[in-house]
Amino acid sequence: MAEPPYKRARRPDSKQMWEESDRRSGPRDREEPRDRRDDRYGDRDRDRNRRYRSRSPRGSRGDRDRGRGGRRDDGRDQRGGYRRDERDRGDDRLGRRDVDDRYGGRGGRNRDEAREPRNRPRDRSRSPRRSSSRSPRRETDYDSRKERDVDKGKDPFLGGREEFSKSRTATPPAHVSFKVHGASNGSARDSPAVQDHDRMVTDNNGRNGRANSAVRDTVEEQNVEEDDEIEVQDDGMEDMKAMMGFGGFGTTHMKKVPGNNVSAIRKEKKTEYRQLIAVNLFAKAATVFSSNNSSLSELALKYPELPQLLFLELRKSLAAVLSCFTGTVHAAEEPSILINEIGRASNQSLLWGPYRPNLYFGVRPRIPKSFMGALMWAKVDNYQDVQDNFRHTCEQHDGMKGYGWDEYDPRKGGEQTIHDPTNFIDISTFFVKVPGGSHGGSWAVRIRGKAREDAPEDLKTTVVFHASLEGLGSLGVDEPEPLGYPDDVTFNGESEGLGKYTLTVTKGRGFHPAPSHASYDDKPLDRTMVNSFTVPEEYVWQSKALMFQLMSQQIDEYKEAYGDSGAPPPWQVFTIKNSPGAGNVHMIQKVFEGDFEFDVIFSSGSAERELTSQDVSKYITSNHKSYWERFISAFDPQPPFDVENLQRFTSNMFSNLLGGLGYFYGDAIVDRSYAPEYDEENEGFWEEAAEARARNPPKPEGPYELFTTVPSRPFFPRGFLWDEGFHLLPIADWDMDLTLEVVKSWFNLMDEDGWIAREQILGNEARTKVPPEFQTQYPHYANPPTLFFILENFISKLGAMNGTKPPVNEKLSQGESIYSAHIDNPEVANQYLQNIYPLLKRQFQYFHKTQAGDIKTYDREAYNSKEAFRWRGRTPMHILTSGLDDYPRPQPPHPGELHVDLMSWMGMMTRSLKNIASFLDFKEDVAELTAIETAILRNLDDLHWSQKDKCFCDATIDDYEEHTLDEKLGHLLDLIGDEEELWSDFGIRSLSKKDVFYGTGENYWRGPIWININYLAVTQLLNYAKTTGPYQEKARDLYTRLRMNLVKTIYDEWTETGFAWEQYNPETGKGQRTQHFTGWTSLVVKIMNLEDLSGGKYQAEQPATPKRDEL
């Protein structure tokens, strides 16, 4: 059949997925070995291929395209786990063939670096050797041990809140048990579980829019033209705007490419159904109305049109906050002045942060090619362990007993604890941000190490801070010290966007190893060592590889000087040569015995004065207090979760979501060949597409920049499009302005056709977690448009603040306008929506063009002949683009398929866009979008409801069935509540237990419990539980039990393991696959805030609260 002239299109990204057939198998526990499962390399030991994983496990090489880089998979066990063993044998190995164990002779590659600056032999000895000698402690800050014992706890730097002591471990939290009618539910998991965490103490003290076609169909050009190098003046507002990235919405560094058009596929067959998840995704994420419709598919269609409000007066509360960052702000006579001042103040407060979430601690500004800092540490008691246990990047198999942010506010800082039993130490980082000057203020991090309870008495630990500078500028040591620095070390720097600054690493306090070898005279370990050098820019971020290269050089020198028999002790061997000076890389190393503490202080040259350790102590204390005041105000857990012992759990979940905020910059790999096979219009299209990908090499594009949260710091430390909408739902309750900044950053990545790559692998550092064959993105691959959730939420909050809608069931922050300026100032909100609306329409049109389904060809009866949709990127085993990876779909794949989940997403997108158009008073768009929304809802019933299965299903080509529309909601509620179908005691399964594919194959979306889908289900059940009708009581019962089960499942596993997990086992409730998955699993915070409808049936039993271990 002739192809329509508008057929050519841009399409998705995916290397063909698996061809292997599914095999029935039971669900796997987290503890089951992952290296025995089939993977994309056949029978190869999976344990050798763990460096990388997407949300869908690997199958045959030809049948997979990793948008996420790979799937989150129990089989691969961790994201980014492409080669778990090999990553540990890489650039970070020190050993050489001619160096014995006494010199750390173990070779290999660095697990966290892309490549090494120089080659090294990789052979290593595995013979364990441990030093048995004990060295007396050497004091630094006090004249004697007795004086230290007298003075400990009276730290002049820490104030009253902190205590520096020899206390070894954190006090286990009291476990909260959940009961029905006051009785235990009998689960074995209700018993108290010990968790290796410190206790928490809670301080309870638009312009009127014109709806013409030009407005609707075009995108406004950016006012600030982007360039690779922007000259920034200290006090120039326009230059600051460009540098700080709030110059508006628009395409970032994208080359113009032709638009996409897709026609329907013509095949003559009939229709069959396969059950999809019974939860209709076309549920309101943040609507303020409860629907009276009786079907999950028919949700609130109508919103009142909001008049556009313009206010010209700057609120006093905003001015008070802004003055902290930009000086006094006077009332604005023009909205543009107000908008610019708000943007400048907000971006100043967000310039710095631990924006390298792939590291245990890594700091950088939101400026390309600028200053970067990183923390590394290891115990150095013997020659073997340091090579395996030198910490830098977050890794799933580091054996941590939990790590992450106990409290964190991106605008102020926070506290992080890392429990590292392998190195016998707990590391805490106290990060503070101090406003002042014109370059984003100053910052500091207090690094504290505390020996664990089971640590040896003379535990030796080396700690390294890596300071580096990408791009142009200077960074060098203030004054050289030949034998190391007995006191503070100060660096002077200057670079574009930051101006002049100083970096000081304080002397700190703690004991050091005593002299025990002649080499100590040349390098006394009670001093701070600095090694400064210059490397090519592409190596600057490779902290551990560079550090190991320096230590290898030192090993060679010691071997030559002392031979094998007279080798220095390991704590002397694993040091760097003291060689301070200028360069773009500076390694600052300290060696301690026992507990320690020191500060790294960055002082902006444009600030009034430099920071001191006393200032750091003050800000740690004040930030702790302000965090908890704001946290209790923003999040209000409802019964039975309103107990104090759950506050620490809630804070940990939310803070680690915020702690995953990162700034990424670099090029992306994209295939813009637009091969005809990418239309996926023929039977067997997935094979044709795989062949086309093989012959069309991708090319780098960019560079681009992205400000986003990550799903998991150890496994997926980069941006994922459909995750981000879920991530931002809790963040919007905390800081709406930050939320909108992240949304803007994503939409600035959009190309001219409305495409945003679903996985953002920007730059070399990000690519180290992703094999080359999975790095390519394809413009015809879409992804669920979850960012529309956030704009829907924004509209709801604006309505609540302006009195045009009933209040949302969430507390709106008051009085802290730097967090909520877009809500407090409607003209700012209006301008934001005016700017983003054309981009939203462009993406809406992209979905219609590239993901269209076929109705007419197959004699389908539907209300509307256009509103039907099909994901591109389909293979026999996966639709990675859908986000549901291996969820069973009709077999075999067919170009005439229609996908119910995509239809639901399109309904949600249409409604959200209509509400924004209503707010902006674009009447013509509102009318058009209302008609499309109605058509989608009607077609959802006509095309996707299966009377036989009593649920909404995918449609494919086979036997045709008539539809009946009666009592859909009742059938769906029965399906959800049936324990033999979707219901479990731990949450709703991702696939019916009766399904032939349940627990088979990769078992990724074939039964395990996912919190994002459960969140959509529990919020929609709440809507129906509050709506009068025949199913109200059933919905109330399901809502109450599901809410309880979800919180208990996540909390129990966090208590037991110290982590949130990617998914949970439907049979046991155990967390599985990726650990430290504080992306959408953090939605538990919002679930706890939902209304209690149990009438006191459920209770959380709270034991006596123990005192917090103050470290």
TrEMBL record:
Keyword tRNA processing among record annotations: no
Keywords: Endoplasmic reticulum, Glycoprotein, Glycosidase, Hydrolase, Membrane, Signal-anchor, Transmembrane, Transmembrane helix
Localization: Endoplasmic reticulum membrane
Residue segments, region Disordered: 1-213
Domain Glycosyl hydrolase family 63 C-terminal span(s) in chain numbering: 612-959, 967-1089
Alphabetized GO MF terms: Glc3Man9GlcNAc2 oligosaccharide glucosidase activity
Keyword hit for Glycoprotein: yes
Biased composition (Basic residues): 49-58
Membrane topology per record: Single-pass type II membrane protein
InterPro entries noted in UniProt: 6-hairpin_glycosidase_sf (IPR008928), 6hp_glycosidase-like_sf (IPR012341), Glyco_hydro_63_C (IPR031335), Glyco_hydro_63N (IPR031631), Glyco_hydro_63N_sf (IPR038518), Glycoside_hydrolase_63 (IPR004888), SNRNP27 (IPR013957)
Main localisation: endoplasmic reticulum
Function: Cleaves the distal alpha 1,2-linked glucose residue from the Glc(3)Man(9)GlcNAc(2) oligosaccharide precursor.
Protein name, entry field: Mannosyl-oligosaccharide glucosidase
